[in-house]
Design a protein that fits this description.
By secondary structure, the chain is mainly beta. It folds into 3 domains: 17-181, Jelly Rolls (Sandwich), CATH 2.60.120; 227-339 and 347-396 and 463-679; 400-436, no CATH class. The strands form 3 sheets. The protein has a 20-stranded antiparallel β-barrel. It has a 17-stranded mixed sheet that branches. The longest helix has 17 residues, at 2-18. The two termini are 44 Å apart. The model is unreliable at 1-18 and 186-229 (pLDDT under 50).
């Protein structure tokens, strides 16, 4: 019996070891593969199987990308590189790569299986991370960690270092080891480098430390390989979502295409109600096609020209007194907006611009821009900038699903044009209409609510700022600045002095603020799309008979009249990326107004590096509360809180739970999405 068990075990082990372990997903010539047991290289072919013992080699402009079948881990070999996939001594042993020379990148998905990379001078032990290893012809090695933590050991001296995110470690053939901070840069030739996943960007101010931003609910398609030719990849998702209080099941295809510096990602969802009927509102007009564009992109942030069309990641212009953490995707997927952000850099001149929604251009909707210039003085550089933002019609923020000009709250005939329905009914005669009203068959069309379709109210804000980088380095930055902003026809605000500082994983900032009457800091903030126009129980409107009626919509600019006192106070923020495990950030404003005006603003966010947690692919939470009397209460308009958690349920398959709550007039609106994300 024991012999049978041993024989079966040996057969099982040999079967596992004999099966191909991966395949070549990207091949750019010149690139070669030498199968195990062979003594000569042959030209590598796309989709070719790869096994233990194989050698991979690239010429000066060559490139190879390999996919591990077991867990979807990705390996990339740049030009003039040579590596071997080492056969494990025993089944279940850690995977191993020997990198003789060249540039090697890996994304390891399975922390338990891990990966070991050996070079002539060093050994790197990896568990669930992303990293580069660069080996020079003389055997010196450099390890750059992009995500996670890598254990790096010098084989000559036995020295050991743990390399964290954005750190670079040198390990020499003489036994030496040194560590330094790393500023990300391009390593692979542009014509052969696969694009990294297209994710929401983190725009920064005119300098100084960056700030973490909240995750929106929108999907993050995985970008296709780019380069000189065509790149194509496909993701998908199935799940459930609550839209306008109704639960829908959905399936979504998310193709991603890249050509040279251009990229396009689509989100093509089909929602089904409880009866299996397709939600027609998503496909019943030509403009709906715009909403299916997740992004159109040219270039990357930091390039001379970068343009992105689609859902906008949180944007801060300058130091944020006018616009801080604005996003057009706060209500996704209930409300889909297709906007644009762009960056242009020409020498010391930099321009940033944005459009919130192309559907609102005839309004116009929200438009903004910032122009800055760095002056190289003999003593110290000075960065000066100007910002201009306009919302041409705040009333475009009213919920009006049938686009008849009558807000949903007042809509007498939901899903139909109220004006047309009233005209049809009046054609039946006043006596007949009066009887229908008396019998509650139809609403009282003789006293209709106001139509706000033609209502317009713009708000414009401009500002200037000056910043001085006292320290500007890889590890530490220290900026001092001052800024001023004015809301046209309202008040003016100042923030001076201000300071931003970062040292390694720690970042902080503070500024002293002085606000005149009718001024609000960060007028265009994370929740602006939900605050452009809100319902007020105390506002009134005049009915057709000339009588005032209680309750009406007011714009955000109209609320400035209540800020009838000057104010002084502080704004402070701090963040810490702790041990490459958790990233936390918080910002708080406290202003001293007179009377009963709200005095506090709060924003907080935390995210976990889940590479250390088995089966967990995502974990983050965020909280935003503007203009509140007391923090951590939910009676202030624009309060947003949410969290996202993702679980790996299989290779290339994750279950993502997204829970977001936005408060309007003290009432919560829940946006809950549960989806299974699939990478094809």
């Amino acid at each position: 019996m024991k012999r049978i068990i041993i024989i079966l075990a040996v057969l099982a082990a040999s079967t596992v070891l004999s099966a191909p372990i991966g395949g070549l997903q990207i091949v750019v010539e010149p690139a070669f593969r030498m199968p195990a047991g062979s003594d000569s290289f042959k030209i590598a072919e796309l989709k070719e199987m790869v096994d233990f013992g194989d050698f991979l080699k690239t010429g000066s402009n060559g490139f190879l990308g390999m996919l591990y079948f077991e867990d979807g881990s990705i390996l990339k070999l740049s030009g003039n590189s040579e590596a071997q996939i080492v056969k494990p001594e025993t089944p279940g042993a850690k995977r191993k790569i020997y990198l003789k020379v060249g540039d090697f990148w890996a994304k390891v998905n399975n922390a338990q299986a891990g990966l070991e990379v050996e070079t002539p001078s060093s050994t790197a032990s990896i568990k669930g991370t992303e990293f580069w290893i660069l080996v020079s012809p003389n055997g010196d090695s450099r390890l750059i960690c992009e995500k996670g933590i890598v254990e790096f050991i010098n084989k000559i001296s036995g020295k050991r270092m743990f390399v964290a995110q954005n750190q670079i470690c040198f390990s020499g053939v003489d036994g030496s080891m040194t560590m330094d901070e790393y500023v990300p840069q391009e390593h692979l030739p542009p014509e052969s480098e696969p694009e990294e996943p297209e994710t929401p960007q983190t725009p920064q101010g005119s300098g100084g430390p960056s700030q973490p931003q909240p995750g929106g609910g929108q999907p993050s398609p995985k970008a296709a390989p780019s380069g000189g030719g065509l790149g194509l990849s496909m993701n998908g998702a199935v799940g459930a979502s609550v839209i306008d209080g109704q639960t829908y099941q959905y399936i979504s295809l998310r193709p991603d295409i890249s050509i040279w510096r251009f990229g396009i990602g689509l989100d093509l969802p089909i929602y089904f109600d409880s009866e299996g009927k397709i939600r027609e509102e998503d496909w019943d007009e030509g403009a709906d096609i715009i909403d299916k564009i997740y992004y159109l992109r040219y270039g990357k942030p930091g390039n001379p020209l970068y343009v992105r069309v689609g859902s906008l990641s949180p944007i801060t212009l300058g130091y944020g007194l006018i616009m801080k953490r604005y996003t057009n995707a706060i209500e996704w997927p209930q409300v889909r907006r297709t906007g644009m952000q762009m960056e242009m850099i020409r020498g010391n001149l930099r321009f940033e611009g944005l459009v919130n929604n192309f559907r609102e251009l005839d309004g116009p909707g929200l438009l903004g821009g910032r122009l800055s210039y760095e002056f190289k003085t003999p003593i110290i550089p000075v960065v000066a900038g100007g910002t201009f933002v306009i919302d041409g019609n705040q009333y475009l923020g009213i919920d009006d699903d049938d686009n008849d000009g009558v807000p949903d709250r007042w809509d007498m005939f939901p899903g139909k044009n109220d004006n047309n329905q009233i005209l049809k009914l009046n054609s039946l005669g006043s006596a007949y209409v009066d009887s229908l009203i008396e019998w509650d068959v139809i609403p009282d069309i003789t006293n209709p609510p106001p139509n706000l379709g033609d209502s317009t109210e713009a708000v414009t804000e401009w500002g200037i700022d000056v910043g001085v980088p006292l320290i500007r380095g890889k590890l530490m930055n220290l900026w001092i600045y001052g800024q001023m902003a004015a809301i046209v026809n309202y008040g003016t605000g100042f923030a001076i002095p201000g300071v931003q500082f970062n040292l390694g994983p720690f970042r902080a900032g503070a500024e002293y603020r002085i606000f005149q009457k009718e001024f609000m800091g960060e007028f265009f903030d994370m929740a602006y799309e939900t605050e452009r126009v809100v319902w007020s129980d105390t506002a009134t409107w005049i009915d057709p008979e000339g009588y005032p009626q209680q309750g009406n919509y007011i714009t955000k600019s109209q609320t400035l009249a209540s800020y009838n006192e000057t104010a002084q106070g502080i704004y402070a923020e701090a963040g810490l990326y702790l041990f490459n495990i958790i990233d936390v950030f918080g910002a708080y404003q406290k202003m001293s107004y007179g009377g009963d005006l709200p005095t506090s603003n709060l924003y907080a966010r935390a995210a976990l590096n889940t590479s250390f947690i088995p089966k967990v692919s995502l974990a983050e939470a965020y909280y935003h509360q503007p203009n509140a009397d007391k923090i951590f209460t939910t009676d202030s308009n624009g309060t947003v809180l949410g969290w996202r958690v993702g679980f790996e349920v299989g290779s290339g398959v994750s279950l993502i739970y997204d829970n977001r709550t936005i408060y309007y007039n003290g009432e919560p609106e829940h946006i809950i999405t549960v989806e299974t994300a699939i990478t094809f």
